[in-house]
Design goal:
Elements lengths: L4 E7 L6 E7 L3 E6 L6 E6 L5 E7 L2 E8 L3 E5 L2 H11 L4 E2 L2 H4 E9 L3 E8 L6 E8 H7 L1 H14 L8 E6 L3 E7 L3 E2 H4 L5 H20 L12 E3 L6 E3 L22 H5 L10 H16 L9 H10 L15 H10 L10 H5 L18 H4 L4 H14 L33 H10 L7 H4 L5 H12 L8 H9 L1
Parallel strand pairs: 5-8
Antiparallel strand pairs: 1-2, 2-3, 3-4, 5-6, 6-7, 9-10, 10-11, 11-13, 12-13, 14-15, 15-16
Subunit structure: Monomer.
InterPro entries: Prot_kinase_dom (IPR000719), Protein_kinase_ATP_BS (IPR017441), Ser/Thr_kinase_AS (IPR008271)
Family: Belongs to the protein kinase superfamily.
Length: 479
């Protein structure tokens, strides 16, 4: 059993430090005590029942804690501990999310989760996204095992066009999934795309889906909201693997307007569907990219779902449009076949004549470079001064989590920076008011802190809320 990583460390003992070696293999952590003879050796399986935490001092990692039947701390230098943390990554469960990260603001919201922007406590200029899930909701819907099926999928799906899951934390009332932070959203640039942009973006998207299918996975929730970019359209990232499965599809799930008809119309007791459901969703996305319109319209959720199930496709916006090539229309029709057995597969899409046209070189400048490319440095320059100046970005994570109780006694609500009409004055009004809002039992049943509940309440009052972009934060800060 060959080790892939090895560090020297020590444990504090009353009679002196004990020298140890920590080795990491493909599936085990091996701790060898070299101070005693004979050397004592302890092996821990790398899985999601292994809990690990860290000590941080002066913005540097000081020790790693391995939690088994006892809690043992192993001290080593910062660089080795950082490398060890990266190697273990999302293959184990970490404790103490607030030990390593400062939450800055909410940047997204789902049915059972919220997404926060995090700043590293050990690397001040590194930012991450954190998907925070309520444990009670997870246990009720899919269970801990179901959640870690999603984690396993993300860990196994390492690809340049798939968002990387870095770490998973578990607290008393919440799970936290830490990922790379991407600040350029597909839905923000849909109306600014030219033919070359569409070609560049769609090929990356199909490449990511094809990789998933080759690994045996279905995404089952492909839609524009689950497509992000790292700095530019040349670095597409597919996100949100909450519905991803490796089994044959037997459950009805997805987002109305993007669901394959075989999912909506089949009998779950006798039928099943396969990865071709993702191809239909790709077709709906491709249609929107080409026309800037939704394929299945409706004034409400039910109407969209009904039209999606009927699967009546109208190609009037495509036929006769000189800006849309015949190859694109042909490919679209192959993806939107109602019968999944007649529908093109992901590998064949990449070989289609639409992608056979001359490839656009990646160093070309796109039309709207300013709006299609943003740098994380703008977030660094803005949020950090705001945090230092106003002292208002305190942790949104639960009081009930053991790792979060320290220095959390006087928490202030996290402000919502609204896209329109937002200002530093609006952001700081909570801090200066000196008032703590009382919350009803109904409001607090899902999340256990005032920070989560204040944010959720504010968003419900403003249905048009969208997380601010770096350039908007710049304007707010300058103001």
């Amino acid at each position: 059993m060959e080790s892939s990583f090895k560090i020297n460390c020590y444990r504090h003992k009353l009679l002196g430090n004990k020298l140890c070696i920590i080795e990491v293999t493909s599936n085990k952590i091996i701790i060898t005590n070299i101070s005693d003879l004979p050397n004592k050796r302890n092996e821990l399986d790398i899985n999601y029942n292994l809990f690990i935490d860290f000590k941080v001092k002066n913005k540097q990692l000081q020790a790693i804690g391995l939690i088994t039947n006892k809690h043992h701390w192993y001290y080593a230098d910062n660089e080795n501990l950082i490398n060890l943390k990266q190697i273990l990554g999302a293959r184990v469960v970490f404790k103490g999310v607030n030990t390593l990260y400062n939450p800055l603001q909410q940047i997204g919201q789902g049915t059972f989760s919220n997404v926060y922007l995090l700043q590293s406590k050990t690397k001040s200029y590194e930012y991450y996204a954190c998907k925070c899930l309520d444990k009670a909701q997870v246990d009720e819907q899919i269970g801990r095992q179901g959640l870690f099926e999603e984690v396993k999928a993300m860990v196994s799906l390492k690809h340049q066009n798939i968002a990387e899951l870095l770490e998973v934390f578990e607290g008393d009332v919440s799970y936290y999934m830490v990922m790379q932070y991407y600040d350029l959203e597909f839905i923000d640039i849909l109306n600014d795309l030219n033919d070359e942009d569409i070609h560049i973006i769609f090929k990356q998207l199909v490449t990511a889906v094809n990789f998933m299918h080759e690994k045996g996975y279905m995404h089952r929730d492909l839609k524009p909201e689950n497509i992000m970019f790292s700095d530019s359209i040349y670095q597409l990232k597919l996100i949100d693997f909450g519905l991803t499965t490796k089994d044959s599809g037997r459950s009805k799930c997805g987002t109305p307007g993007y669901i394959a008809p075989e999912i909506l119309n089949f009998d779950t007791k006798i039928n099943e569907y396969n990865e071709k459901c993702d191809i239909f969703s790709l077709g709906v996305i491709f249609y929107k990219m080409l026309t800037q319109n939704d394929l299945f319209n409706g004034s409400n959720h039910d109407e969209i779902l009904e039209n999606n199930a009927k699967c009546i496709t109208n190609f009037d916006l495509l036929n006769g449009n000189p800006k849309i090539s015949k190859q694109a229309i042909n490919l679209l029709k192959l993806m939107l076949q109602i019968d999944p057995t007649l529908r093109i597969d992901s590998n064949s899409i990449l070989k289609h004549e639409y992608f056979g046209v001359q490839e656009i070189t990646l160093n070309n400048t796109i039309n709207s470079a300013n709006s299609l490319s943003r740098k994380h440095s703008s977030v660094i320059k803005i949020l950090s001064p705001l945090q230092k100046k106003n002292f208002i970005f305190n942790s949104p994570f639960s009081f009930h989590d053991d790792e979060c109780i320290e220095k959390e006694a006087s928490m202030q609500p996290i402000p919502i920076m609204v896209m329109k009409g937002g200002s530093v004055h609006d952001i700081t009004k909570y801090k200066n008011s000196g008032k703590n809002r009382k919350l009803s039992k109904d409001t607090t049943k899902k999340y256990q802190t005032t920070d989560f509940d204040d944010i959720i309440a504010d968003i419900k009052q403003n249905n048009n809320y969208r997380p601010p972009k770096p350039n908007q934060l710049q304007e707010m800060y300058n103001e």
